[in-house]
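Cross-check.
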Amino acid sequence: MSVKESTDKFSDLLRSSLETEGDKISAFSELVCDLLIDADIMDVPVSTDFDAKIGNFRYLINFYELESDKPELVIGSVLHDESKTSEGLLKNDIDKYFGFLKNFVTNSISSALHKKIKREDESYREMADLSESVYKNSETITRIKLILATNNVYRGKELKSEKFMNKEVLFDIWDSKRFNRFLSSGITNPPIEIELNVYGESMPFIKAQKTNGIYDSYLTFFNGKVLEKIYNDYGTRLLDRNVRAFLQTRGKINKGIQTTIKDKPEYFLAYNNGLTITCDNIKFETDNEGKERISAIGDFQIVNGGQTTASMWHAKRKFPDIKLTDIQVIAKINLLKDKSKVDELVSDISLYSNSQNKVNRADPFGNKDYYRTLEKISRSVTTPESVIDNPGSSWFYERVRGAYAEEKNRKRPGTETNKFLKAFPSQQRIEKAQGAKLENTWRLLPFFVSKGAQWNFLNHSEFVEAENIKPDENYFKRMIAKQILWKRTEKIVSNQKIPGYRANIVTYTLAIIVDLTGNRIDLLKIWNQQYISEKLEECINQVAYRVRDIITETKGNVTEYCKKDTCWKKIRENITKLPHDFDEILEIGLNAVQTPKEYAHTDKNMKFVTEIPAETWKNIASWGKHTGLLANWEKGISMSIGKALIRNGLPSPKQAYRGKQIYQKAIENGYKPE
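Predicted model, tokenized:
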């Protein structure tokens, strides 16, 4: 098969990206980040453009990810090869690009590279921050993943992991063939096939007698040494369907596991709850006594017990002399027969069978009703027929990673696939973690959004559960309007060529606009048009520059600074008003979207605020500014209500709702109306 024949779908996506972005490398990098998020390889990748020679070393980084709650660093480069041939990538190319990445890791840890970068060029500050984070967290970073993404084809063997500087280093190549496979089937890696004789010997088992046709269940025992070897070969790929990565030994549970491994291996079976494994096929063999044994397990995935498995590997490296052969681990192997039930069954197993490390219901598979409702609504709500692009199409809410690709690939090539793409265009897809970013930005929590996808998702999930949020059609439309705003803001910031921190600038820019308008942006109008106005774009453009200036004023690590509420306070103190004509572009009126919970008493709220003189509302705003007892958005709403009443108009239902609260707050804090 030729390179061209193997890469059609990926090439189409890349071609489309290059048409909309001027810089080919930046466009390619952005596309790679989006696809690696979809593939669950990265959670919050940051696209960058760091290509520099400092001293004797060249560094080339196009995207990265380092979250404080994870022991893994991911950095990657992109290789856009315009002259690719049927021979594919040469080994020299592979070695060269991975060498650029290894240079960065090695020199960040060993020679404080961040100081040299800062001296070299101020525009490289984001990479200096990353280098400094690697330097400071070098003891806790245990795994490093180096990724090379290319539009060419790699025909070599899978690269083996290495150890350097006491770190496990993985080399991951995403070529056009692999991207195309993922786009076609949602498969990111070949399934893991475990031949037990390679790791020791086949295993005896007990099969559950009664099953429901969806799965068969087998009970067996793994030797600790076998688990350690399997984890050494496959690492966290074994946990692709688990709800979280290895939590390291900092938690009490994992410390207890390692203590038992080291000091009381014979008690491990009694103390440990064991593993839950899923697979799609099992092979058997007959021993000399005529008894059946499990000899191989296909598509091997640990959905519960990842901590136990990873602890075997880490314990062996921390205590080389321990004998893992003395440890037995009980395992329940579920052979999944009904492919359509895999996601649902695996998520339930992950939630309900884990008792060693508590799985909060706010983990990625929690709050099912909220996410399932959004998923259901998204399949039926269509864009207005009056919109210019894709009228009558729908936004696809992706509750489960890969669901979009799976839905598309169930259609027959040709007419059915084209019909699906017309109904659900690829650019109209929103994943649940992105939805959490939007909602927390509008809740004025940009510092939580900046903490990363997992922390932000957890915070949002807890809020959804605590408030018992029940999404309806209007809720979904508002979410999509926020997504339209978010994606456009990303483009605006990218076009500014601001060096670094785009993700932070986007959430803080939108949060301060929401704050200063009292959350008065007419999201329904954005939904109806499926775009934002030029004046709103100009406002975003101006605010984004200001946000960037403020967050980079800190002398410390900007990325870490953005994760703190002190950063948000600083922005609110320094950005106190929007462009002077902003009121004209808000298009706020009685047609604003309402949610039943907030506006259940619209008539009463409207009566309350309209009976208060316009001058009083303006005085409340002045009082709030003088005393500092009202937030910027509260002062803005007070002034807006006053202006509406002067024009003999009415405030919006949302303004009336908020206005009543603001008035009562002012009275309680000492304001005395004249």
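Residues 589 and 652 are 5 Å apart (CA to CA). The radius of gyration is 28 Å. Passed to J.P. for a second look.
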